[in-house]
Amino acid sequence: MHITDDETFGSNEHASINRGGTLVLDAGTPQREDLTIGKCGGEVRVELRVTYRQEAGGAVNVTGKALLYEGTSVNTGDLDGRAEFSGVVNSGQNRTFSLRVRNTDEGGDFADMTVAVGNLALSENDPCANIDAKAAALGAGFTGAAVSGCEPVRGGHRRRYQNCDIYYSPPTGAHEVHGDIRRKYDAKGGPNSDLFLPATDETTTPDGVGRYNHFSGNGSIYWHPRTGPMEVRGGIRARWAQTGWERGASGYPTSDELNISQTPWQWYSDFQNGVIFFEGNAVVEPATASLGGAGVLAAFDAAFRSRTSGDARVQIDSVVVVGISDTAYDFTRSGNRVVTYRVSGEISSGHWFVPDPNFEVTIPVQFVSTPQPDARREVTLLARQAGVINIHVSNFAGIGVGDVAKALREKLAAIFASPIRLGTVPAAAGLLSFKVMKDGGLTLYFRPDLAGRFAAVAAQNMLDNIKI
Fold first, then answer.
1. The whole model's pTM is what?
2. What range defines the domain where residue 326 resides?
3. Most buried residue among 24, 168, 181, 310 by CB atoms closer than 10 A?
4. Helix, strand, or coil (residue 410)
């Protein structure tokens, strides 16, 4: 592709842009669009948008639209000229399209554009050529150097590169996997796993935060910077899709699919905000026990006050939640959200003529289960310190205030000298997940069978009477 911007006001107002590259069209991506922007003197800006669409028989329909702006395209009122072209490039043919777009306001400004298109048809029975074309389209800056030959794999072919792997089969086309999704795919067994071959490139999720690859084995791997790469498959994936994918109530997956039993067939996936449990051919709601954020806060409020009740110089005025993090990154099972509490009050200065200093202590707390629940093992539920406990004293004055503040911090920190044991769930209870919710509350998910429902009742009693 070649663009030259010209004006009639002197050689210092001429500019040119040359671009080239490879685009791959196939059944999965039958249309692609390319945008080239040129700019020359007089603040003239030129945009050329070319669309390539696959047609029957290997032909490619090429359409181009050129726009000339006196200023920038952000201000559409500056549009001063337009031109278009279209045509078909048959398989094995080279064709050049040329056009000129003029500044209709001033008349003297114009831009000449040339688009040269070569249509090379690739046989679906030539996997190595398809992989090489995909690599050329991605560019060496993306792929890095090849580190393997074009090798056969289950269902297709693959070439490994420094930064990605490219797979090809006639049904799926050529697609790349890279980064942590590539690591997870390899860890699951790559094309030898139930995922089979990639059916998409790594793609940005609709919420603009995460990434995913879909695979031909009715599965996907989703990545988020606060979850890590997680596999979701089959009926669980279908239910997640029905509820809005990552933008739905469940959020992103925080575990791979976990199999519980094959008689009957039971499996589940953990998500940021819940659990999807599949039994046989249907989704079944797990049994649950929960304590809302206000209830958890009340338990910590009581704990902080009881630890300081013996010091008459310390008065706690309030305990509030000042932060709830997102879930924590992991390669196999994302960590729970961290809840940060702030304890505020006053320290007596000991002197009537010195104002009592105010204090604020911030305490980050993480709720964890060890080992991670899988509906089979005994699990211990813990609360532990998840960062530095900070204390700030304002209006700092008075003899001994610093010592009282230090002692206060030590008393509150002593609560977490070792993880606080909240309870133990026996293996027979079938605990699926122990989760911190968006409001700082706690939810336990159990198998939806008789033992799980009894366990949920016992867990609810534990949460309702929680002591820290």
1. 0.86
2. 289-464
3. 168
4. helix
Q: Which helix (H) or strand (E) holds 390?
A: strand 390-394
Rounded Cα distance between 150 and 147, Å, is 10
Whether residue 264 is preceded by a cis peptide bond, meaning omega within 30 degrees of 0, is: yes
Claim to verify: residue 76 and residue 165 sit in the same structural domain? no
Last residue of a domain, one of 118, 140, 155: 118
The pLDDT, as a whole number, for residue 41 is 55
Task: Note the pLDDT of residue 146.
Answer: 98
Average pLDDT per consecutive 10 residues, the chain (468 residues; last block may be shorter) = 56 68 86 84 77 93 90 66 94 93 72 91 91 95 97 97 97 95 98 97 97 97 98 96 96 96 90 96 96 96 88 88 97 97 82 68 94 96 92 65 74 86 94 97 97 96 90
Q: Are residues 41 and 91 in the same domain?
A: yes
DSSP single-letter state for residue 75: S
Dihedral sign computed on CA atoms, order 131, 135, 138, 144: positive
SS3 content of the chain, % helix, strand, coil (to 5): 20, 45, 35
Which pLDDT score, from 0 to 100, does residue 413 have?
A: 82
Q: Within 10 Å of residue 23's Cβ, how many Cβ atoms?
A: 16
Cβ–Cβ < 8 Å for 117, 94: yes
Q: Are residues 306 and 437 in the same domain?
A: yes
d(CA 453, CA 444): 11
3-state SS assignment for residue 333: strand
Chosen domain end from 118, 148, 178: 118
Question: What is the per-residue pLDDT for 9?
Answer: 43
Half-sphere exposure of 430 (CA within 13 A, CB side): 22
pLDDT of residue 250: 97
| Whether residue 174 sits in one domain with residue 243 | yes
Q: Please report, for residues 10, 344, 367, 392, the alpha-carbon distance to residue 322 in angstroms, rounded to integers and kept in the order given.
A: 63, 12, 16, 15
Q: How many domains does the chain have?
A: 3
If one counts every other C-beta atom within 10 angstroms of the C-beta of residue 461, the result is 11
Q: What is the token pair recorded at 301?
A: 């409020």
Q: 447 and 307, same structural domain?
A: yes
Specify whether 364 is located in the same domain as 449: yes
Domain shared by 382 and 440, yes or no: yes
- Token pair 């009742």: residue: 457
Q: In whole angstroms, what is the distance from residue 110 CA to residue 44 CA?
A: 9
Asked if 258 and 233 sit in the same domain, the reply is yes
Query: What is residue 10's predicted lDDT score, i.e. its pLDDT?
Result: 47
Tokens of 259: 């199999």
